[in-house]
Amino acid sequence: MVKKWFDILVDHKTSLRERMFCMVTAICMIALIFTLPMGRSILNIIILVVSLAVIGLIARLSILKKRVQTGAMAIVILLLLLFPFTFFSAGGFYSGVPEWFVLCFIYVCTTLQGKRRAVFFALCTVETLLCYAIAFYYPGLANLSGQQRSFFDSAFSMIMVGLLTSFLLMFLNRMYEEENALTQQQKKEIEELNQAENHFFSSMSHEIRTPINTIIGLNEITLRGEDISEEVAENARNIQGASKLLLTLINDILDISKIKSGKMEIINTPYETGTFFSEIVNMIWVKAKEKGLEFKLYIDPSIPSMLCGDEVRIKQVLINLLNNAVKYTSKGSVSFFVRCEKQRGGRVQLWYSVEDTGQGVKKENIPYLFNAFRRVDEEKNRHIEGTGLGLSIVQ
What is the per-residue pLDDT across 178-189, written as a single tens digit (0 to 9) for each? Predict the structure, then answer.
């Protein structure tokens, strides 16, 4: 039993709360070994043995069943029942028992959580005050000892409680230091793994992009041929579609690798807003038309004809959002809004928003919208093409 208890205390795989529960419970069991015999009767010894057995059993079952909070609450209740008996049998506030009860407060604070902690802390306080009040007004209820014995018990209890509390604090401090060192080591390993992963993705993406571009180029030559059969043309179009989809995936992986490694650069250059919006609208309008969707456009006429910014990245964000709207809308419309607000110093602030009449997103899936490689409602949307990278890159 003692060996298993010690194994739990030093096992990093065991949760901090379970290890703390074991340590503080062990301290309270030691406290009982010292306090109950102060009553100097056979009944006190019997209660001590039974209490130690019961606490040991509760602690074991709590860890096995993963119910540490319930176990801690049961032990606190037992301590609250034992304190009045020990208090009066040992001599009331003239004995060394009150010093030991400090450990009950510590036990409550370190093992219980939330409302339970507040309730039992209050119960400990009320019980202590009641015991002191009863001992003061009815001193005959306390089994008074001689002055010399009381002095010894009080001094011994004060020293032992101080030692055990100090030992507990040192253990907790060491435990947190070890966990912190372990966390830092794991963080370092994860960072190194992410760097290696990003480097791998970046290298592989570059290597794969070259043959894909070659395939697209050769396939384009095939499609331009005048004497090819309809079957060959159909196969070439399928190859073209698959190649472009694969190239989009590779570019997304490259972008997410750059973002994660902090190498994504925003390059501000002047660009024509007319051309910028025309390219976006033409691309999305075609896709919307193919699905029988209405594409609505609302662009603020006060937008300047020239702006300065990273045209490529802004376009990438908007196309990702609009593509998603078209992909997940089976009927109705997709709307693109651009609002402009002029500011001082020749600057403007733009608001882009996208609306659609699609299926929407479940409330429980909203926190995962921007997770890389994760698509919400995978089973429902399995027929829709996508990598799960678009919104992560947008963010």
Answer: 878 888 888 888
